[in-house]
Specification:
Number of domains: 1
Order of helices and strands: HHHEHHEHHEHEHEHE
Strand order of the largest sheet: 1-6-5-2
Distance between the termini: 40 Å
Bound molecules: zinc ion
Number of helices: 10
Helix content: 40-55%
CATH architecture: 3-Layer(aba) Sandwich
CATH class: Alpha Beta
CATH topology: Rossmann fold
Structural class: alpha/beta
Strand content: 5-15%
Radius of gyration: 19 Å
Length: about 240
């Protein structure tokens, strides 16, 4: 459509914010209004006391490990999450990105995490940055890998290392034990990567940290293929 008529259409039928639906979206952000974006920024500024291993919020607990991490032996060093998924606006944004396959939501995610992401990367000091892959079926369904797309908008390169086998059940519908079983054997190294990974400190990026099962399964594959250590960076903490 030519931009003149596009402009007229946008004037009479402005796109609405996917979260509040009241204000027009697409001023600074693509799918959120400025108010909802500000709300995310303000509520994310102080996440309070966090578990040193998985980044979950600790309510009325002393600094240290959450109950889950005290109970489980994750093989990754630690997870850092940039925003909380419990924020209702973020929830809408992630639904749009993952379940409605809205590419423009990825742009907004990138804008929201740009600063904390840059701060993290400045001091992280890993040798290799990689990302959790989708299966071919998952790629076909959504049409894009949401983690790769957000990294693209952040201007961040990564090294593809892992591949993912096909899986039928959406993980979001499973409980903890089923999730662990569902991701077992899901990931493998793309080729013989012993020389690439040997002795390297890896940063693995994913969108949401929920139970840690995906992160831990990927970590095992990387460590078993020679990596020295694996840390996790996730956009959101469920
Ligand atoms: Zn809004
Ligand atoms: Zn924890």
């Amino acid at each position: 459509m030519n931009s003149f008529f596009g402009g007229i259409l946008a004037f009479f039928f402005p796109r609405r914010c996917i979260s509040c639906g009241r204000k027009p979206a697409g001023q600074e952000y693509s799918v959120l209004c400025a108010n909802c974006a500000d709300y995310i920024r303000e509520t994310s500024a102080s996440l309070g006391n966090k578990c040193v291993k998985c980044s979950t919020r600790l309510y009325d607990a002393p600094p240290g490990l959450c109950f889950d991490c005290a109970d489980r032996t994750f093989r990754f060093g630690g997870n850092t999450s940039l925003l909380s998924y419990k924020n209702p606006v973020i929830h809408e944004l992630v639904l749009s990105l993952k379940f409605e396959a809205n590419r423009e939501a990825a742009r907004d995610v990138a804008m929201l995490i740009e600063k904390p992401f840059a701060d993290f990367m400045k001091t992280a000091g890993h040798d290799i940055v990689t990302a959790v892959p989708l299966s071919r079926g998952g790629m076909k369904k959504r049409g894009f890998n949401q983690v790769h797309l957000v990294l693209h908008y952040l201007g961040r390169d990564f090294t593809p290392i892992l591949t993912r086998r096909e899986h039928d059940v959406a993980q979001s519908k499973l409980g903890l034990n089923d999730r662990r079983a569902a991701v077992k054997g899901q990931f493998e190294a793309a080729g013989n990567l012993d020389t690439v990974l040997h002795g390297k400190r890896i940063l693995l990026i994913d969108d949401i940290f929920t139970t840690g099962s995906t992160a831990d399964e990927c970590t095992s594959v990387l460590l078993d293929n020679g990596a020295a250590s694996v840390d996790i960076l996730t956009f959101f903490r469920a």
